[in-house]
Write a structure and sequence with these properties.
The protein is an alpha+beta fold and about 240 residues long. It is built from four helices and 15 strands.
Length: about 240
């Protein structure tokens, strides 16, 4: 009887060992070998972002970026890195066996007054860095209807922003005059849609105005080279 019990115990332990080994090989077959990936996380005008959570979905590793926006994380050859912050759009980056060990990403910041405070409060960046990268105003504490037109509303409200030209359709200049042969006018985005002019927009319709300059406008590619004026209306132009 004792021999049978010992044999049964050995056989059970052997099956468990075989199962664990098999599961390990299965994991390696599915996910591949592990690797260390490093990189930096930036936003807006190439600002380094601290305290961003970086998670590897399959290896379950997670870290936070340091004070200069850099990170090191262990993941699989086939994995997905997820970059998350409270005031940023979540970014996912696939990791493949051919992916280099250095993965740098740029997060899209959601620019509102409350988010600026959160960004500073959570230590993502300093207040000075945030102020130099974006400009924002909304109709919470001011009646925009007192302005004659949208250009009067914008004029003098944003540092470095100029209204150039006469007539009913002047240009908003954010980054100065770049060339006499091409337009230096900013890109206009109203309720998420690119428009060619703001002249049809009444100040009473405006809920908020956000001005992106320098690296912050890079999310719009070459179209945002002269800076971007983002306007959100109270009801939307199409309503």
């Amino acid at each position: 009887m004792l021999k049978n019990k010992i044999f049964q115990r050995i056989w059970v332990n052997k099956k468990v060992t075989i199962f664990v080994i098999g599961l390990t090989f299965f994991s390696l077959a599915v996910y591949g070998q592990s690797k260390v990936v490093s990189g930096k996380v930036t936003t807006l005008n190439d600002l380094r972002v601290a305290n961003i959570t970086v998670m590897a979905k399959k290896s379950k590793s997670h870290v936070k970026t340091d004070t200069v926006g850099e990170y090191f994380i262990v993941c699989y050859d086939k994995d997905v890195l997820v970059f998350k912050g409270k005031v940023f759009k979540t970014l996912r980056r696939k990791i493949k066996p051919t992916t280099k060990d250095s993965v740098n990403v740029k997060l899209d910041f959601i620019p509102t007054p409350s988010n600026k405070e959160i960004a500073v409060g959570y230590g993502y960046m300093s207040e000075a860095q945030m102020t130099s990268a974006t400009s924002y105003m909304d109709n919470t504490n001011e009646n925009f209807c007192k302005y004659t037109n949208i250009y009067e509303l914008i004029r003098g409200r944003f540092p470095g922003v100029q209204i150039m030209g006469s007539g009913s359709d002047p240009e908003v200049i954010i980054r100065g005059i770049n060339s006499f042969n091409s337009s230096s006018c900013a890109l206009y985005v109203v309720d998420g849609l690119v428009v060619s002019t703001l002249s049809q927009l009444s100040p009473c319709q405006v809920k908020s105005i956000n001005v992106l300059k320098d690296g912050a406008s890079a999310i719009y590619g070459s179209r945002g080279a002269n800076g971007v004026v983002i306007i959100e209306t109270i009801k939307g132009l199409n309503n």
